[in-house]
Amino acid sequence: MTPLIEIRDVSKIYERGKQKVEVLHHIDLGVAQGDFLALMGPSGSGKTTLLNLIGGLDSPSGGSIAVGGQRIDNLGASALAKWRASQVGFVFQFYNLMPMLSAQRNVELPLLLTKLSGAERRKRAAIALALVGLADRSSHKPTELSGGQQQRVSIARAIVSDPTLLVCDEPTGDLDRQSAEDVLALLRALNRDHGKTIVMVTHDPKAAEYANHTLHLDKGTLVEQAAA
């Protein structure tokens, strides 16, 4: 498969006062178009940092990152924001939904950055909600939804712009086992049936089983990569 993500000799250093902490050490990684990759490792291993770099939420201290042939490590803040809006969907552990908005309006939020009409935004949000099985919950606010349903709304929001890449940070970390399995099955369907490339951070080995491959980090270094 064609590489979608190409990471070459990437390091990340944070400065804490006079101290420099290297969180990632010379990472080389390729992720194929249409792959579903799980990132695992102990707390502090650098997996969320790597995910943030892949999603353009942070920039490396050294090395290069290309997604779909586009170098993102040297983009300015404005260009990077536009790239994220069109190319990446984000799914977080705690949903990050606006409590005063309906599921429909929450899903529409990324489209407010586009030139789409209100009618087209509503249409696309409705399609995304139907895809995650929540067409009948479009008018419900987050407090009227279960945790699993809220996470599915956040996935609908992540895919409403039809991004190439989904980055998921502990998407099942706040869910019971059944809700977690429902969300993971949805992610796998988005990967297999809709061609979405997914990179997911998880601490749960059972969640990692839904991915095609698992990559392990320890102290900022890639230590193992194996088929699931």
From TrEMBL:
Top-rank taxon: Bacteria
PROSITE patterns: ABC_TRANSPORTER_1 (PS00211), ABC_TRANSPORTER_2 (PS50893)
Molecular function GO terms recorded: ATP binding; ATP hydrolysis activity; transmembrane transporter activity
GO biological process: response to antibiotic
Domain ABC transporter: 5-228
Alphabetical UniProt keywords: Antibiotic resistance, ATP-binding, Cell membrane, Membrane, Nucleotide-binding, Transmembrane, Transmembrane helix, Transport
Keyword Cell membrane listed: yes
GO cellular component: membrane protein complex; plasma membrane
CDD domains attached to this UniProt entry: ABC_MJ0796_LolCDE_FtsE
Gene3D superfamilies registered for this protein in UniProt: P-loop containing nucleotide triphosphate hydrolases
SUPFAM superfamilies in the record: P-loop containing nucleoside triphosphate hydrolases
Keyword Nucleotide-binding applies: yes
Family per similarity comment: Belongs to the ABC transporter superfamily. Macrolide exporter (TC 3.A.1.122) family.
Protein name per its UniProtKB record: ABC transporter ATP-binding protein
Species of origin: Scleromatobacter humisilvae
Taxonomic lineage: Bacteria, Pseudomonadati, Pseudomonadota, Betaproteobacteria, Burkholderiales
